[in-house]
Amino acid sequence: MGRTRDEDIALIAGGLPQVMGALMSHQPLRTGAFDVTMAQGRVLMVVGHGPGCTMSELASKLGIGVSAATGLVDRLVERGVLERESDSADRRVVRVRMSPAGIRAGQEWYAAQILHMGKALSALSDRDIRRVAEAVEILRRATVEETSTSDRA
Asked: Which of 22, 16, 21, 48 lies closest to 140 in space, CA to CA?
């Protein structure tokens, strides 16, 4: 007899962090004049996927507190990777966006992640890679739809 839906969900919830931990490189990426840690790389990925964001938006997307997000941003601003700017609609709100150097660092970090994942997944057949890619796309769509639905509520 197969697993129940709840058992499958528990398997996914328990397995995804382990899989992602194995697939994502935890080594700092040497990019130009500075290293980008895994946590800083996540900041670059979040900030780089849009025109910028507020500190609370960043913290929410990373699943960390605003003070932790501020510390990560402070270090990246000091290195010239991120820039802070006043929000045009509300001068009290500060937005964080990528600097030109940050855009390059984010691209290098992402390329290093792709290379690392390619090595980690090299034992899979082309068919299995395609199946995993399809599963990830299904999960991505489901989580994006769930996130946008909860944002509207």
From this structure: 16
